[in-house]
Batch of 2 targets.
Target 1
Amino acid sequence: MTIVKIIELVGVSKNGLQEAVENAVKDASKTIRNMRGVDILSWTGEIDGDKIVEYRANVKISFIVEER
Amino acid sequence: MTIVKIIELVGVSKNGLQEAVENAVKDASKTIRNMRGVDILSWTGEIDGDKIVEYRANVKISFIVEER
Amino acid sequence: MTIVKIIELVGVSKNGLQEAVENAVKDASKTIRNMRGVDILSWTGEIDGDKIVEYRANVKISFIVEER
Amino acid sequence: MTIVKIIELVGVSKNGLQEAVENAVKDASKTIRNMRGVDILSWTGEIDGDKIVEYRANVKISFIVEER
Amino acid sequence: MTIVKIIELVGVSKNGLQEAVENAVKDASKTIRNMRGVDILSWTGEIDGDKIVEYRANVKISFIVEER
Amino acid sequence: MTIVKIIELVGVSKNGLQEAVENAVKDASKTIRNMRGVDILSWTGEIDGDKIVEYRANVKISFIVEER
Amino acid sequence: MTIVKIIELVGVSKNGLQEAVENAVKDASKTIRNMRGVDILSWTGEIDGDKIVEYRANVKISFIVEER
Amino acid sequence: MTIVKIIELVGVSKNGLQEAVENAVKDASKTIRNMRGVDILSWTGEIDGDKIVEYRANVKISFIVEER
Amino acid sequence: MTIVKIIELVGVSKNGLQEAVENAVKDASKTIRNMRGVDILSWTGEIDGDKIVEYRANVKISFIVEER
Amino acid sequence: MTIVKIIELVGVSKNGLQEAVENAVKDASKTIRNMRGVDILSWTGEIDGDKIVEYRANVKISFIVEER
Amino acid sequence: MTIVKIIELVGVSKNGLQEAVENAVKDASKTIRNMRGVDILSWTGEIDGDKIVEYRANVKISFIVEER
Amino acid sequence: MTIVKIIELVGVSKNGLQEAVENAVKDASKTIRNMRGVDILSWTGEIDGDKIVEYRANVKISFIVEER
């Protein structure tokens, strides 16, 4: 039997929104296996002067827990 | 002291919405103890032809972590 | 002249989500007449072990108050 | 190339919430092919006396339009 | 007289979120004329390993129906 | 058997919010039959100087499709 | 001491949205005293042919209960 | 048999947000028995000069109606 | 280069909802130029006896700031 | 004639949620006159170790602009 | 590389809303390190007689997972 | 003492969503100093033919007002 769990995390990037989401998935892959889908909940950024210096993506990632 | 945590997961059933929620709780019980409540966030289904062949329930489950 | 009022209440059932809504309506019928419609706002449940032992449905019920 | 479209419709049943969703899918199948998923947006019902005499499910159904 | 209608559809891309929206519009243009605006409702993705292999954008597109 | 569908469209009027909704229904009646209900989702307007020169109403209209 | 309570009801009118809200307040005044404020939650209408034949306003009304 | 009802009211306090909620419950207790739970929907305040002179808490209170 | 800003304000009228929105725009025009669009966020009213004596419309107004 | 405007700002406090709201109002009073009401949109905090070291309250403040 | 995760939990207090949030953070600190921020999602309470005997705060806590 | 204010504005770009957000920040920097963070509220676009010819990002920008 398989269980689908959902975690929330924050992806971060200096280069853009797309990369922030990709990083969230890449980061999650270090501790989570069998990821299936990602939902983007919200986007934020940190500003320095007139530039966004850090992009952040709040995401939910679903993954499958194989039953032992 | 007791801590109440909340996790999100997806219950799945071939038979109906009610069973999808029951399965979410049953699935969660394999790794989580002391569950107290369940909140149903949303319902979806997968269609094949003119039938729903898989029902899914996104749920939040609260459980108590006994402090060691 | 007729007035349409809306009340919120919680239907409860040991057997399932559908019955929880039915009970909300049945319960309301003991004090309210001329009910017309029901809106289901949210579903929750109480867990004991690996089972849902009480299903709850938060509902809004609209009913008509006949003017005297 | 394939296009995924989404339509909203209302499933209706005299017997319960589950059947209302099933009917929405069955109804949609008369004019739409290649349906994939269903999202349940909200549940309502019509009351007569102390009973729900018609269950309704507002759903979104996604389907694939094969490009000619 | 002109009528403004709104449809919902899902844009898909292997390369990124931006392209998923562009594809939604390009896909819609095969069956719809006189499109005016697009609203992005939500973003999701499908994961394989540690990568997003499919980006999806749920969008609403408004278009003008010229009256005959 | 009857199927209840829901479409979204934008009603427009130079004279006011009420008329924008009425126009949405009137516009829809040119291509849709057996309309039953209308839900107003949001109101917007276009400004020129210190006046609203165009009122817009985003609406959802439900209608019945008679089965052939 | 004074208590502020809030009730929800539906105002109805054959003539327009504004009158539907006015009627909700007028209707409520038959059973409630010391009303203070009204919040409009949503607007709907019933359609016959290409016309809205009944306007409805879902409202919340706050009123003050003087303590005996 | 027991029926769980939900009412909405506004708690008021000159001293703070916490007391506004407590007052909502205390006020409700004058006309309602068997209250079980309170949900805080929103917080507002009235300002005079640079001070909040009245705190308000919009709350929903659930209570049990014992069947006669 | 042009910058589009958005402000929120409250339009007020003794006569009705439509006029409350118009007044919001008229009021804003005294300090803001180059207004383009208005979004109506919510409607409220103040009641005296069985009548609404003041209509209020919470609106967002977008306007263009010409760069010097 | 009077115009009611609404601004959004963040109140900050080292001591608690209530003081964060009070500070938002006190801060706003340095540049804004004739404030009337405050709406609390959301609460957040910054954590250091096992303590909240900064409380933040996102608020909307309405104020009256007297026409010259 | 650092990963920002988000968990949801319920803080509880007999004394008030502020302490319920503080307890959520204190509780979380027993199993989680490097917490950064807390978002308060909702407030509820349990009532006994005319008093709130338990305050609860649903919170999301973000924390940094140091990569090994 | 420092005050954190929040403004809403619309970033525009011919090239993509990311640039629309960057432009919102760049535009805001012409009249606002000490910007800290940006929240993306919603994305829209204007369509010509089968292409998005203008991307728009509705954003909230927080900035610090140094007290004189």
Target 2
Amino acid sequence: MKIAEIAPPWFAVPPVRYGGIEWVVALLADGLADRGHDTTLFASGGSITKAKLISVFEDPPGGAHIGEAFYDVTHASRAYRDADSFDLIHDHSGIIGPAIGAHVRTPVVHTLHGPFTDEAKKIYTTLSGQIWYVAISEAQRAFCPDLSYAGTVHNGIDLSRYPFRDEKEDFLLFLGRINREKGPELAVDVAHRTGRKLVMAVKMAEQFEQDYWREVVEPRLDGSEEIIGEITVDEKADLLARAAAVLFPIQWPEPFGLVMTEAMASGTPVISFANGAAPEVIKDGETGFLVGSLDEMCAAVERTGTIKAEACRAHVEAHFSADAMVEGYLKAFDRVLSRSV
Amino acid sequence: MKIAEIAPPWFAVPPVRYGGIEWVVALLADGLADRGHDTTLFASGGSITKAKLISVFEDPPGGAHIGEAFYDVTHASRAYRDADSFDLIHDHSGIIGPAIGAHVRTPVVHTLHGPFTDEAKKIYTTLSGQIWYVAISEAQRAFCPDLSYAGTVHNGIDLSRYPFRDEKEDFLLFLGRINREKGPELAVDVAHRTGRKLVMAVKMAEQFEQDYWREVVEPRLDGSEEIIGEITVDEKADLLARAAAVLFPIQWPEPFGLVMTEAMASGTPVISFANGAAPEVIKDGETGFLVGSLDEMCAAVERTGTIKAEACRAHVEAHFSADAMVEGYLKAFDRVLSRSV
């Protein structure tokens, strides 16, 4: 198959730092090329891939320019100019790429990487029937079920980046951005009530995140916690591998939640509110726990010893590896090309 | 002919306040409908037109949202969804509309309403050959001559909005935004050196415009000037009609310069630096003067009595009326449809 993968233009793929979408694109482009598909990756300069790379921007514009139409339009227009030379185009860029893709003859598949805001619903509904969508979880898809879906494909991760470790240390881990949706203050409460040490590796790039930390999280701290700022990929993998459990007190229906798969890949159970994609990602009682309240989360902490590290790793290998994701997309592509959706 | 006119989504057309592009679109849609063409106008709610109106946004988003891709994508996607039902699509929206239009079967004409920034050049070059361009002046076109042009069509105005007046008062008029490119401080200098009263109707919406006024213009004022803030369309027409001459000390190659045609329509000569489109708009010595220096501008002020108000009006009627513009576009459309460009 001749396949085009269109990354967002902002960062190189794979990303040097944070970048969930960029990792998905990088793994997919490599995985498709590995399987013998003639794969072209449209991504900014500095990208490393087994696919043929075409870059409009030699220097990735960077996060500060996200939202400026010039970059999306130029990048996507270059990619779609070649539309006729592909059997299928898989677009991960924002909303401008899909809007252009709606008018090419080649089938276009767009992965819905973000949540369904009112604006996203309006745009994707407008383009429905003209392009195919892939949801990254059934939970996400349920928020806008009537689009022209090619399927649901969970995000996969590069397992080699998350070394497996059977022996755990005694701390609980919270890892992520600091805002109401992520529930960091609930992780603090759970640690205090269960008498466990909490390590928090936090990201606070935005002012409102810093405000949330100062106003909501910091007043709850009692000095027993270890607070770490932004960390490297290796530091993150090390923390995940050593933790007794990862707390994921998610307060909104997050479309996926990559950190859950990263934790389980390291052999570490995840304790999450049964929100968003969590029930699709965690096998309750086998790779972690799905809870409905703070009391239940505390009770789950006491039961983490019953979770087998091997079961966590095996679950990710089977369902959230790069291979599983590539196979999932190939099935979705087949459905589109055979019009059996 | 079945023609679609796509306005930018931000304001209703015609605009209640400022909005050069919106006036062009409004006059064109009416003019095409008047000539019996089956015309559809894609524009936000509140628009008044003789064409069939299709609005994605019942309430125009307004200027504060300009640049947010959501609005352009939703608006343009709705318009291009119907692409096959038109003989020709004429797109005035920013860069997202044309990028989509590059992939529809129906010929798309895009009017270049702005200057050729580096970004604009890159995008329009990328899309060249996939859509047709109309420049609004030869001066503008010269900055990027190798695009797939359907022609050059000067902007037209609704002459009925600019009452003709033969008897002038003694003041010089400067009308416009306050920034280096518009040269407002030069208008002050010319008035002082020629001993004439200056009326300035100024627009300072942005901080940098207010800074420019305070730092560059204000220190030059000697109290003889009359300074007016933003004015209504009627107030503007009245000022233009009464002025002895309009000073247009333009310091950059502005692609058009609507105020020149508005002044001449009122029977008022324009004295402009020979920059940008000014040499195409002003008939030197007949409807105003083209100058190359401050000295020349002062000298021209002394000669305004030699300009006939009727000649100014007649020049606009012949070349910059709504009718002239509609005929210009129809010729460009014919060239596209007969592939004779």
